[in-house]
## 1
Amino acid sequence: MRVAVIGTGYVGLVAGTCFADSGNDVVCVDIDGAKIDALRRGEIPIYEPGLEELVERNAAAGRLTFTTRLPDAVSRAEVVFIAVGTPQGDDGSADLQYVLAAARAIGRSLGSYTVVVDKSTVPVGTAKKVREEILSVAPNADFDVVSNPEFMKEGAAIDDFLSPDRVVIGTESQRARDLMAELYAPFTRRSNRILFMDPQSAELTKYAANAMLAARISFMNEMAALCEKVGADVDHVRLGLGSDSRIGLSFLFPGPGFGGSCFPKDIRALYSTARENGLDFNLLGSVDRVNEQQKQLLLRKAIRHFGGNLSGKHFGVWGLAFKPKTDDMRESPSIPLIEGLLGKGATVAAHDPVAHGTAKRIFGDRIGFTDTPYGAVEGADGLFIVTEWNEFRRPDFDRLKGLMKAPVIFDGRNVFDPARMRDRGFVYEGIGRGV
Ligand code: UGA
């Protein structure tokens, strides 16, 4: 099948590459010429395990090409994916300007019957708007608009795409439905979960999934706070709770607050959709508020530990990205933590296996970056663990203690066992481990 993908961000690049890998002829389009040049040279703008190899293989086979010329890509395509950004607007709603601009550009270039797919996370009603936008520039065009939200996670994007729990296709058109089923057939063989529905339900499903996952995390973060008060261990509670098959064990880890390009933005956009429709989606407001507070928790713990004064103290930070296996720092809890420490007069040395480049754009030379985790704790009054990269899980504790000025660890990811850490001679504070 001939496929065009507009936007080479996370979703567009992974989706385009995976469609090419299943034998389709895919053209990825972006207005950013430098990015397209880099992609043509095989340079991938994001860190995502396995993606570089997959791009290289499919580009070499001639199934995956990159261009800035949208009309060329669209006029020959049977399916066109819109995968451009939907940033958060000033009022929390999703800003659709890039999606609608892409729709107009597509409209001007459509050839014979084409399925136009909303892949970006877009508010309910967007499929309709995209349709109107295309019709405004091409009143006689032969096309259908489909909502096909993406559920991949950064760091596991390729596996998620190739082996999805489900594929959601929102359309009223049988012709579009058949084409989409054919395109996704290689990926839906395992689960056979291709769910057809109307576009509005598909659009809402995406937000509902992210909101539910975010709610689980905020729930666990509040539960963790209660565990600390009553002398319970949230990790036991997590296991006891998640073992109920109705609840399940995923996404029950408390932490320093969820980040990333999706959860914070999407819960605000969903809240805003509810408000526009005269509803106060109270729960979502709380999920967001709890999360914002949670992002201050590690800092609050440190302030308490040091009797309110962090001035002149030096801290190590392990992990800058919002989660492991990515260099993405959007809404990462490391940002408010480090800004807070600097604001209180402390100095910071940080180590992240892949996010130094991203972090330097945020912090410049206001913090130090070290090549190893050990470098970050040299002479430190305390260590913060913000991202649970595997390489932080089994450090040489004696070396750590020897390097630090004081053996104090604030662990935002509950990586270690509190009792064993005390035996090893550390002052150790996790999240929700009150025993
Ligand atoms: C999330 C969803 O998981 C994907 O299904 C969705 O497609 C994507 O958003 C999107 O809308 O594009 P992602 O943002 O890549 O994916 O990352 P997650 O793995 O969901 O993690 C989000 C945040 O939650 C991270 O900061 C993570 O540390 C935190 N988290 C996750 C917890 O604090 N506790 C948990 O138990 C799980």
Note: The longest strand covers residues 2-6.
## 2
Amino acid sequence: ITINKSYDSEMCGSIPLHLVNLVQPHGVLLVLDKTDFRILQISENAGDLLSVPAEELLGQPLSAYVPQEKHEEIVAKIAGQASQDKIPFTLPFLAQGIQKTFDAVVLPQDDYILVELEENTAIETEHFASLYRHIKYVTTLLKQSVTVQELAQRFSEEFKKFTGFDKVLVYQFDTQWNGIVIGQAKEADMDDYMGLRFPASDVPKQARDLYFRNPYRLIPNRNYTPVRLIPVINPVTQRFTDLSETNLRSVANVHLEYLANMKITASMSLPIIIEDKLWGLISCHHKTAKYPSYELRAAMELLTGILSVQLEAKQKEEHMELRVELRSLHVKLMEQLYTSSNFAEGLLEGETTILDLLSLSGAAVSYEGNTWTKGITPDAQEIKELLSWLRRSKTGGMYITNSLPADYPHSKDYKNVASGLITIPINAEQGEFVLGFRSELIQTVNWGGDPNNAIQMEPDGKSYHPRNSFQIYKETVKNSSAPWQQEELIAAETLRNALLEKLLKERY
Ligand code: BLA
């Protein structure tokens, strides 16, 4: 077994998901000619679902199987779908005197048209009304949540009730594309993933990218026999057909094993996209096979969209509150600065200090050959050495880290560990800085299974498997401080401008 953390970009990230030439068997995939809608390729399960063998359908226009009186309408729909966004329509399919209805989704490509057919599960008007009432109800409930956490938890609970899935998770990506479960609702006998972090390679980059092209990924039953498209090679492009946008696309083996290891049979995930970035996922699990209707999937899409908008608003609100608070601290600090005899005193002494503004454990000001300190800081000699390192290598604007020892190993030996550092250069070449320190915050990260074993390599060096345990694996993170928030960095920059302005006025 080899251990390595670069699976996301290297191994898992290079599995080609779209050129597999295989689909899941819960629908039929058709590749149509752009001009006359003749069937160029079709999945081999056509016989099962459409009651006409795949070979027989090849080369025929799709309309040959649509009742006469519907021809015009269906042809117009297929031709006109280009502008619409994957909205399914009902397709009547007539073979051997028997008519079946299918939900059809048209996915126009450059050189051909993809059509996905799934057996229609038409809903009653009454059902629709209840669906609508439910969506309204959930939306209202979500609005009452105060924090992001609360919103995520409430959503999980309501979404579980609404969809009937055994488990619903709200999963938020971190800056390294690991993900943390921030909301969970589940059947009692299922594993508890609340608060756990999962490594980036669990949802590798190309899988994440596909969420910008598809509103969900549905795997109704991991125990399926994949179905081939025939002919294997697309006759127009002379290549495998790109299945990126299809729902039916067959699932990567490593992920099917993953689902088995999680002891689930069905899975459906939907993206939470905020400001054009993949913020997180809704992940739904079911112990047995589960095949939600198109209508339910559409409603799930809608609710996830509503959640995304509310999360965005909630986050903005939280940032705004912090900004307002920092703004008022800044104003107080400025008053002090302009009334005190020297600027170090203005920053470090008095009712409000830079420690309050930037949530520091200690601070130092080095100016005109003197050094003043406040709170928990490294000792005089250590600060002197740190300043000369900064003067040599960190003169280009503010330097911010939440793990100083990673950049400057010497600092590991400080008596008062200063794991976080923010510098506000006054005159960096002269070694004049304001330094803000944050103490070490030893953190325990609870992983969903050991991330170092995310991939189990076989001795042949080629075959591999996902990890088979999602038991909590505790990692202790040392030598780092609490992270710096965007708003705090803005406050530091604002403070820096104000300081420079004041010092300029004094000098000239
Ligand atoms: C796909 N992995 C996925 C998907 C999810 C996860 C949600 C999308 C498909 C789906 O909805 O089932 C991961 N699901 C999670 C996580 C949780 C969850 C983290 O519920 C947390 C609770 N996977 C591995 C390794 C590799 C890998 C080692 O563990 C690579 C070598 C790959 N995962 C992988 C691939 C896909 C995937 C390739 C895409 C599968 C597909 O769409 O065909």
Note: The radius of gyration is 29 Å.
